[in-house]
Amino acid sequence: MDRRLTQFLAVAEAGNVSAAAAALNVSQPTISVNIRKLEEEHGVPLFTRSSRGVVLTEFGKVLCEHVRVMARLNDHAKAEIRAMKQANRPSLKIACGFTWWHLFVRDAIRDCATDAPDAALHVDICSSLDGLRHLMSGDVSCFIGTRVDNITGGMGFRFAPLLAVEDAYFTRQDHPLIGQVITRRDLSAYPRMDVAPFVNRHFGIAEPTGTPGLWPKEAPAHLSTNSMTAGIGMLKDSEAYLIYPMLTQEYFAAQGIGMLNVSDRPTHKIQIGTYTLAEKTPSELQIAFLDRITQVVAGERMP
Asked: Fewer CB atoms < 10 Å away: N or C end of the chain?
């Protein structure tokens, strides 16, 4: 990583130019000059200075957030290269949404394991926003999930669509509204649950209005979790409802979760696809996996 950015991050974390200089074993004037060059380059002040040290400005906070991502990517690249040297075998780390794991990613991973038995495979199950965060930080090389609107500019994500789906409304199977024809107005008396909430760690990846899965004018969530396992339990223990892809109906039914008959349910299609980083060259194993994903979906091997 550029040494000016390394020095900027050290000052931001230490809150003091002298302490950062000592930690990096460089002179204080060198760091001061490089910070000033960064401020000139961006045309904004990055720190507010006082007798006790320095504090990031709002502009500095934005830069610091991105520099931390760059530092993590650098660390992950080193770790990945080190692991490859030690293991001397290919590896694939992916993230995907809960629904897509059950419908087609599991099949693709199984096929990849068969075709490349010596490969190291890792799967994270997470929401779209967490998946993009894992992708940006270098924890995974691709993410399969819902297309996210309002992604922060300059993130460098590449999206390839796989299929389009509709959302539905789910509750426990003995919910008071099960078996009736209802409208969304009827749901206003019941809490809504969110299994992909927008939280602080998502700032810098997308704007809150870009959170997938929330229809316009939908009630704010009363219950939330980042775990579908916990979410199913919360649905069973409450009168809450969940907005989730209709393709999950069969799996949910086996878990004691039913689908509501909502007459004015929005039926516009939501895109599902694969995210990768535009600037990162995919490995042969990643290319084979993504090809397999496309074949599985196109071949209608989904339940």
From this structure: C
pLDDT in tens, 26-56: 898 898 898 999 999 999 999 998 777 889 9
Question: What's the CATH architecture for 95-303?
Answer: 3-Layer(aba) Sandwich (3.40)
pTM value is 0.69
Domain boundaries, the chain: 3-81, 95-303
> What CATH architecture is 3-81?
Orthogonal Bundle (1.10)
- Looking at residue 104, its amino acid is F
User: Burial level of 204, CB count in 10 A (0-12/13-18/19+)?
Assistant: middle
pLDDT in tens, 59-91: 999 898 888 888 877 777 777 776 666 556 678
Chain CA centroid to CA 186, Å: 32
DSSP codes of every residue in the chain: --HHHHHHHHHHHHT-HHHHHHHHTS-HHHHHHHHHHHHHHHTS--EEEETTEEEE-HHHHHHHHHHHHHHHHHHHHHHHHHHHHHH-S-EEEEEE-HHHIIIIIHHHHHHHHHH-TT-EEEEEE--HHHHHHHHHHTS-SEEEEEPPSSBPTT--EEEEEEEEE-EEEEEETT-TTTTSEE-GGGGGGS-EEESS---GGGTTTB-GGG-TT--TTPPPPSEE-S-HHHHHHHHHTSS-EEEEEGGGHHHHHHTTEEE-EETT-----EEEEEEEETTSPPPHHHHHHHHHHHHHHHTT---
- Give the type of residue at 74: N
Q: Do domains 3-81 and 95-303 have the same CATH topology?
A: no
